[in-house]
Amino acid sequence: MNPYVTLIIILVGLYGLISSTNIIKSVFMATMIESGVILLFLNLGTWNGGVIPITSDVSLAIVDPIPQALMITTIVIGSTVTSLALIISIKIFHHHGSIEWKDLKR
Amino acid sequence: MIRRIIGLSLLIGLFFFMVEAMNEFGVLYNDEARLYFQTNGFLETGSLNLVTGIYLDYRLLDTLFEAGILLVAVSGVSWIAQHDHIEHNPLFMLDRFKIPELFVSIARVLYPIVLLFGIYVVFNGHLAPGGGFQGGSILATALLILYYIDLNKKTNLTRIFFIEKVLYLLLLLISSLSFFTRGFLFTNVVSPDMGVAWQSVFLITLNVLIGAKVALGLTAIFIAFLKEGR
Amino acid sequence: MNILPIVWVFLPIITAIIMFMVKPNWIHGLVFPLQAILLLLFILYIGHLRAFPEDALLVFGGYADWIGISFYADALNLTFVGLTIVMFFIIMYYSFKANRKEKKYFFFLTFLEGVFIGLLMTNDLFNLFVFLELTSLLVTILIAYRKAEQSLKAGLQYLLISSVAAMLYLIGVMLIYYLFGTINIRLVAEMMSTYEDTMLMRVAYGLMMAAWMVKGAVFPVYAWLPKAHGVAQSSISALLSGLIVKVSLYLIMRLHGDMFGQPYGFDQVFFVLGFVSGGLGVLFAMTQKDIKQVLAYHTISQVGLMMIGISFGSGNSYVGGVLHLLNHALFKGLLFLAAGVIIKVYNTKKVYEIRGLFQTMPWTATLFLVGILGITGAPFFNGYVSKTMIKYAFADDALWMILFQAINVGTMISFSKLLVMFTGQPKAGIDVGKSSFRQHLPMTLMAILMLAIGLFYQPIIQTLYGFTAYDVHIGSLASLVDYVLYFSLGLTLYYGVIRKDAKPFQQIRDFTISFPSLNVWLLAVVLVFLGLTLR
User: What is this model's ipTM?
Assistant: First the structure.
């Protein structure tokens, strides 16, 4: 059941990007897409009854450790992109006084 | 309005395709990589935690560039946050914010506990869930509690940048030492037949460096937001 | 010796960090020895590779190649790496005097060089994602470097759309990992031919293609490019238009050509998409009034032409497309750098306010003219070689030839607009002292390279690609007459139609796609590519 829920998170994030008129909302929706992708990746690799990969016993069927290692990197990358996007939005607000996409069209 | 309707219909189409893809997922899953890590992971890397073994041994290059992206983001955020233009209406959040007394008292108790927990997670990265990045984030939270206690705390950002870059160069140096001892770049300095204990030294050193770097980096980003260049 | 590719990646990064940590400003001069060392190592590596071809694959950590990260070198990415080293040297020399006191500028620029070379050399899908995000971050910071209003807005849009595209790419990587058990590009390419067509692979294909379309500013999702390239500093614009936007074509050649080539050979789609992109690009470029916007929209059109050439996969058109990639870096870079000098001296960006270039700055004006001749495809210059080679494969098909020539005429119209700047009287009070020798030297170097490629194209193509190009008849009278005819057609169309500035042209000029609509187009591209695989 879980992969479908994370898929809905990604699609809600995409819909949010399409329909939000506020810059900060767009940044939040991009972060949401990133969280959804991370959850999707993690969910697809595990199953009920799998052993956590912290063991030296070679006969236990562990869950796949590669998605978890890749997602550690992705989380850091996503948070840095969000922080840069937020600081640029703050500067845009200082310059324009408004934080809607359509007010920036000059 | 039209845009939302078109977007919604495109999204529903994409949803149906992806659900169909995930339905056939259970049938087509390819097991080889998982079996390889199951049988050889502990022997080759010397860490009980196989995830730490992957990001500190098999895919060390990814980790180096992940630390690099933190470096770039810190410099970028602090550059953009500086004020050297005349802006129309700068509003600074800090001037209107007052910290409650209760929060300050509890924070004083929490600070050493969180700090200790962060150090524990960093050091035990190869034996239990955790590692450099996770422990570094917890340490950053601990350091930031200090900022909530005292808003006018003075920090020398230049020194933080300097230390961070020295840590990154150290990280690069230690990662490439394996070229001289084993003939391959970006893997454990100690080869697997010298025992798990010596291999763990490399893992702990890397975890500590990454943890310190991440803690300093996240703290610097937060300070740049809070002070906005003043 | 075979670890040299990773040295190319880390040497600029370490230099960037050292330049940031050391206080005095003369340390910035370190970039020039860095470029010289990189060039030396590059030539050494090519010599080594000729002698030991099995060293092309470099796996880190000594593990098996399906488990560890690897770098792979072949003719495709080595030419790109050479172009990167040359372009970065030119940009650093050009902007050295203007920015010599700014530490962070050199830090970001040198870091970008290291990361970009890594992006070109890597053979691992997830490593590609990390490098892609790093490039997006660095390019955003460089676009928004001056912190003017427009650059902040352009930087934010670029960052957000790039990040969303990278996330879609990551879903594709994940699906491929679950199908094949490895994320090594060469191994996946080998295994792909034995796998049957399943919905997982189709979804992965659709998502990955959409991500590369965004990075390369192809037809529906191009809207970030004019904003970003138009408002950045001239040196950064030259770097972006000349180099960074081409990485998507490299990815298409690598991932669509090598990896997905067996199940989905979609050469027709790229052919048509290239034409649409080319046509729309010149249509927008014709109507703009700002120098940099003209050049930026024109980049979209030229990327479309490259895509037309590349979609053939092999033969004269393919080599023509790849050659056009190198040529475009040279002449678009030259045009942007010269435009930067002109804007600095005249203090305005609008084309109609700049007059009398030959009187005030003769050398810069000549270089600008050389750039225009190159980009419109004059004989003896390199643009002519690549455009004629691209035409080769469909020379018999009348419809596509007419469209191709129409795109060429559109190019000439948009550059006729810029020719207006050369005539007339300059306004009073223009201070010429602001340009310097340091800026003229790299531009002259680029002009000489353009001429060299145009005249000696046969040996150059032979050494680069091992391919004997067909004779494009440089000195023949027919090609010269052809060029002059097309150019005068372009000039007459310009003076007759565009100069009047009728209402439709004003609407085309002000047409922008806002950020939310851009995402709708992104989803449309994903679904189009997905739907095409269902055939």
Answer: 0.95
